[in-house]
Amino acid sequence: MTAGCHDPPTQFDTGAPMTEPTAAAPARRSFVKATLAAVAAGPVLTGGPAAAAAAAAAVERDAVPFHGPHQAGVTTPAQRFAAFLAAEVTAPDRPALEQLMRSLTDRIRFLTAGGTPAPAAAGEPPSDTCLLGTDVPADGLTVTVGVGASLFDDRFGLAAARPLRLTPMPAFPGDDLGPELHGDLSLQVCADNRDTVLHALRDLTRHTRGALRPLWRIDGFQNPARPDGAQRNLQGFKDGIANPDTGSDRVMDSLVWVAADGGEPAWAAGGTYQVLRIIRMRVEPWDALPVADQERIVGRHRDSGAPLGGTAEQDGPAYGKDPSGAVIALDAHIRLANPRTAATADSRILRRGYNYDRGVDGTGDLDMGLVFCCYQQDVARQFEAVQQRLNGEPLAAFLAPTGGGYFFVLPGVPDESGWLGSGLLGTA
């Protein structure tokens, strides 16, 4: 028997759990903690192969718990790297769809916990790519699974179980939508290192081949805080400062999680609506603007992230003392997105945005921007209400939304016996 990088792939149609975490996972996490502590406590060595190896070592966090009432990756603190993938379900019938969801659950359960892949018979193809070595680290990995409106057509008999507010994403004014649009199922894969994201993507697509066909994918990254606070987007401004408090169950229950008594099908309780928008930034004309013009359009100081007239990133905009927009213009992005009034309090969204960079286009312009991802209880009440307020804003001249979709993130898996979508597929 051979192990790890030499194992065979577990085929989609076996129905058996793929691999299980081993004792190596806790040991590795302890090693990582010790390594991080040593790095924090001591100076960085310079010169020589040992120093180069130390500098290249991955920085990894512990496993993010997979089991619970909600899927991880929504309120989880954002990891450095992400991939968003939309796919068509090609499973021929409902039992095959159930097997697909069970297989996804088995793989995600293993990958997010980390461990050593199971051994395989000699001469068989490997079950793991060995991209992460012989021992798969947890690395803060989360995989968040959503379903699109198209899954609820007549293929699987699920029309009556469709989440109440799940529709295809419409085109909004200013959109330039291309082929990266919609999908039966979405995967949001996030981790602290890019190779962990790629490893998970390859594993998941490999073990679901024949039942799931990828349609489009976009990769994202979070910039390190400079000098501190929120990350900066590719327009140079701090991004996602005014997010709702993910540590408050009351806030999350009122803005993010779908409740059993909200008119939704019973199986949907504990899920949430995901909006994905691929937003290209027209960085060349943006970079040609004076900083004062950029700040007026956004409504924040570029250097500190503070609202205009404020001094600190977390200062609240003083709209009440500025009714005419003398300090923060009435059409500034932050003022339209979140006017901070009693009437708009329940339209707040939970953002989880990532920057992207895809090189240059055919005209030689830089193709970069934002993978805008947000979560909410009600797309119309929240995202679309914000979108309507932003219609025609000055910032829109420097943005070109090109794709994305609406998805419903399935409720979580409570324990080892559960699987993603069990409530949905258990409906009549």
UniProtKB/TrEMBL annotation:
<keyword id="KW-0408">Iron</keyword>
<protein>
    <submittedName>
        <fullName>Dyp-type peroxidase</fullName>
    </submittedName>
</protein>
<feature type="domain" description="Dyp-type peroxidase N-terminal">
    <location>
        <begin position="71"/>
        <end position="222"/>
    </location>
</feature>
<keyword id="KW-0560">Oxidoreductase</keyword>
<dbReference type="Pfam" id="PF04261">
    <property type="entry name" value="Dyp_perox_N"/>
</dbReference>
<comment type="similarity">
    <text>Belongs to the DyP-type peroxidase family.</text>
</comment>
<dbReference type="InterPro" id="IPR006314">
    <property type="entry name" value="Dyp_peroxidase"/>
</dbReference>
<keyword id="KW-0575">Peroxidase</keyword>
<dbReference type="Pfam" id="PF20628">
    <property type="entry name" value="Dyp_perox_C"/>
</dbReference>
<dbReference type="GO" id="GO:0004601">
    <property type="term" value="F:peroxidase activity"/>
</dbReference>
<dbReference type="InterPro" id="IPR048327">
    <property type="entry name" value="Dyp_perox_N"/>
</dbReference>
<feature type="compositionally biased region" description="Low complexity">
    <location>
        <begin position="14"/>
        <end position="23"/>
    </location>
</feature>
<dbReference type="InterPro" id="IPR011008">
    <property type="entry name" value="Dimeric_a/b-barrel"/>
</dbReference>
<feature type="region of interest" description="Disordered">
    <location>
        <begin position="1"/>
        <end position="23"/>
    </location>
</feature>
<keyword id="KW-0479">Metal-binding</keyword>
<dbReference type="InterPro" id="IPR048328">
    <property type="entry name" value="Dyp_perox_C"/>
</dbReference>
<feature type="domain" description="Dyp-type peroxidase C-terminal">
    <location>
        <begin position="231"/>
        <end position="413"/>
    </location>
</feature>
<dbReference type="InterPro" id="IPR006311">
    <property type="entry name" value="TAT_signal"/>
</dbReference>
<keyword id="KW-0349">Heme</keyword>
<keyword id="KW-0732">Signal</keyword>
